[in-house]
Write a structure and sequence with these properties.
Layout: E1 2-10, H1 15-29, E2 35-43, E3 55-56, H2 57-65, H3 68-84, E4 96-97, H4 101-111, H5 116-131, H6 140-149, H7 154-162, H8 167-180, E5 187-190, E6 194-197, H9 202-215
Parallel strand pairs: 1-2
Antiparallel strand pairs: 1-5, 3-4, 5-6
Helix pairs in contact: 1-9, 4-5, 4-6, 5-6, 6-7
Length: 222
């Protein structure tokens, strides 16, 4: 079976990243039996200057979008797109936009536990906690609790988050992304060399994955 590495740069407070995740998964479901994909979730902070206590979510977005009407229109569109993919956006439930650096560190830590399926559950749970439940992802206790719900060790997750472990590594990964030309997310890199930018539809992801896996020297038989 062919194998392919897929690096996904995203942020858990990016609604388009949530959509892109589900579209990518849909594409991979359509390729089951043809190839094996290794997904790696890499950090990108949309608002790295967000304070630890967070920012007023609605006020910040209204400034960015040019008013309440524009924001509502954007949210309505996202809700419609999300519904088709099984995503339930509840933007009214989100009170604060968090600093997401610790969330990225948690994903980095989880991936080093060598349990890919739990990492996938964790990433999904983080998106859902923010966008569907309005939970504040700047709370380390909450982050550790989400990790525990995904089958990871909650106590170890909290110990890790309260330490400085992974800080330099996650910063370095962010810098590497910038070096690759990542300016916005979602940003998907196939086999370390072919980029797919934006929340593309499943057919576009599937076509790109097929093409890259066909051309890649590493896409041999297992």
């Amino acid at each position: 079976m062919r194998k392919i590495t897929i690096d996904v740069y995203s942020d858990v407070v990016c609604p388009w990243c949530f959509l892109g995740k589900h579209q990518l998964e849909k594409a991979l479901d359509g390729l089951k039996g043809e190839l094996e994909a290794e997904l790696r979730w890499l950090p990108f902070e949309l608002r790295p200057d967000t304070p630890s206590q967070g920012r007023d979510h609605k006020a910040e977005l209204e400034r960015k979008m040019g008013g309440a009407e524009n924001l509502k229109a954007a949210h309505d569109r996202l809700k419609s797109l999300g519904k088709d993919l099984g995503i339930s956006y509840d933007f009214d439930a989100i009170q604060k936009t968090p600093n997401t650096f610790d969330a990225h560190r948690l994903v980095w830590w989880a991936e080093r536990q060598g349990q890919g399926e739990k990492v996938e559950r964790l990433v999904e749970a983080l998106f859902k906690a923010h966008f569907s439940e309005g939970r504040f992802l700047g709370d380390r206790g909450l982050l550790a609790g989400i990790a525990g719900q995904c089958g990871l060790d909650e106590g170890e997750a909290l110990r890790f988050l309260e330490s400085r472990e992974g800080v330099e590594e996650v910063r370095h990964a962010e810098e590497e992304g910038v070096g690759l030309g990542v300016e916005g997310v979602p940003f998907v890199v196939l086999e370390g060399r072919y980029a797919v930018s934006g929340a593309q539809g499943a057919p576009a992801f599937e076509q790109a994955i097929r093409e890259v896996s066909r051309l890649s020297p590493s896409a041999g038989k297992a």
